[in-house]
Amino acid sequence: MDEAGSGPHTEERLRAQLAALGVRPGGVVLAHASLRAVGPVAGGGQTVLRALCGALGADGTVVVPTFTARNSDTSPAYRERVRGLAEAERAAVREAMPAYDAAAMPSDAGVGVLPELVRTTAGAVRSAHPQTSFAALGPHAERVVSGHRPDCHLGEASPLARLYDMGARILLLGTGFDRCTAFHLGEYRVARPPRRTYRCVIREGGVRRWWAYEDVALDDGDFAALGADLERDRPGAVRRGPVGSAPTCRLVELAPAVDYAKGWLERNRAYG
Length: 272
Description:
Layout: H1 11-21, E1 28-33, H2 35-38, H3 45-56, E2 61-65, H4 76-81, H5 87-96, H6 113-119, E3 125-126, E4 134-137, H7 141-145, H8 159-165, E5 169-173, H9 183-189, E6 195-204, E7 207-216, H10 223-233, E8 238-243, E9 246-253, H11 254-268
Parallel strand pairs: 1-2, 1-5
Antiparallel strand pairs: 2-4, 3-4, 5-9, 6-7, 8-9
């Protein structure tokens, strides 16, 4: 409900709440959002996006994860999909997997509604990684997404490293630290992180083919605990406030969060 307690939340009210949280004109924000947590909004998700863009102003840039797992047979989503199937049935699933298409492939449902709204907005650009792409909208969008190397999910050759250098902030809009993608950059910056092989379908020269590559073994299973410790130990890096019906949203300084994540992971994970 809006401030008066009646009717859905309005764009004006959401924009004011985002500004109170610390979203500033000209900023660069990596957004993770649960529109269900934000509650009923007049105009739905498009209004939420307009409110965020309004708080950032004409010189601001919004970035979202537009991840895709439907073209991989090394993803948890694939393993769940083929659980209990015979090998011939698994082969049929793999054969039907589409090749990554940055212009057309929708992001996974698990990343939420906001990424698709950003991705499909006129002027948005998307990075080239066939599994962990990002979409961005605003004057710094091309700088954020360019150079995303296809064998680097979320490391130095990904938009996360560009956001680190740009002094970006992380917006957790009705979501927790378990959804904080930026912590993955900390995984790349520990000494000798574990690595694994990934496989997915790409299109090269107009031909659909499977591609295997090695990269850091990503693990977000302890990110909620990491975030709780960050908030306790570095309170200046995290601002809290309500947005819509979500009582505790967070605006997090990305670079300090990544630096903290690197040290925390080194202390709390058993790296070989």
